[in-house]
Amino acid sequence: MGYLTVLRSPQVARLLLGTLTGRLPAGMTVVAVALALHAAGAPYSQIGLTTAAYAIAAAIGGPVLGRAVDRVGQPRVLLASAAVAACGYAVLAMAPRDPAAAMAGAALAGLAMPPLEPCLRSLWPDIVAPDALETAYALDSASQQVLYVAGPLLVAGVAAVGSPAAALWLAAGLGLLGTLAVATSGPARAWRAPALTGDGASGKVRSGWLGPLRSPGLVLLLLAFAGTGWSVGAQNILFVAYAQAHPGIPGGAGALLALAALAGLLGALGYGAIRWSAPTATRTWALAGAMALCYLPLLLVPGPGAMGVAAFVSGLGLAPLLAAAFVLIAELAPAGTTTEAFAWLVTLFATGNALGSAVSGAVVSDSLRGAAGVAVGGITAGALLLLAARRVLAASAEAEAEAKSAGVGAGAGVGAEAEVGAAGAPAHAG
């Protein structure tokens, strides 16, 4: 089933466009904060601390908000978090000269970043046919590549015609607008996490404080994706340093990053167009290995023309790997924890990204090849972990499928609320 069929499914275009709009601030924030604080005369040390506050807060807030969605549904959490995040952007826009206020605003914007990405991935099984689910996740993964190209370009354009503070106000508005489009949609209002326990004894999920992290396969997958994020973060620093060392590259680091993002978009579209017969766990570790191979040309640190080719090749594997991982997470997450599980993927990827950036930044001034090695090392470690854990991943997915099936069967006579979600929609099965 092709992409046009998925896009023609009811509500898909609205949800996908709303999610992309609401998540544009994630692609805008770091650049907008840096420009706004720099224009206000802030030193680079303050800019670094402020952007770090945003990233750390987002890493903490994602799983918390994801768990809240699994407990109370999507609309209330999405709308409340979007309003709070908008307040954080407003503080940043109004007080860039006050270090404490700017840091507090950045932390608030990150902590309350609406969990649109995990929410959409929880909705896909409800809004597309089962045989289109793989294509939907691939489309989702491909769309993410657009954010981190469009976001910085949007900030640059707004700052050029207005001011960096205007970009922060725009980020607040886009976050509210996109979240409103998603939260008020029929699928988001109807969605409910599974209401049954494994034995059907009650109408509430008993997941414990670990939530989805009680699945050993999911924990291993998340750790592997921290390595993937590490590679992407290290690659970003490598491209910036390479462009500075080769000032003749048209577009500089932005062009190299755009080439990688374009390759990711094409890779995801190609992945979604294929009907896969291999189990999801097998596809995931194989695609991780393929991404590691795609990163190897970076070690050559060739001349500008060849580096453009290497940048493009390096981007081919990420989006297909993410698309496979989205399906695997849905298989591995215990019933009632799907949104939080997707949020943990975002958090671990972002944490790895930050660590990879830091390590690459520490070595890149001495050796571009050393920074390339840091980039290759993260995804290689992640691929090896997934390969070593392939039996655990497969067993965990099988165990969760049996548990979810047993939970639905055991609860068939519990009551009407066990069989239908809000507004008469079928309860989401994770």
UniProtKB/TrEMBL annotation:
Gene source species: Streptacidiphilus alkalitolerans
Higher taxonomy: Bacteria, Bacillati, Actinomycetota, Actinomycetes, Kitasatosporales
Keywords from the named record: Membrane, Transmembrane, Transmembrane helix
InterPro entries noted in UniProt: MFS (IPR011701), MFS_trans_sf (IPR036259)
Listed transmembrane segments: 12-37, 43-65, 77-95, 153-182, 218-243, 249-273, 285-303, 309-330, 342-364, 370-389
Protein name listed in UniProt: MFS transporter
SUPFAM superfamilies to which the protein is assigned, alphabetical: MFS general substrate transporter (SSF103473)
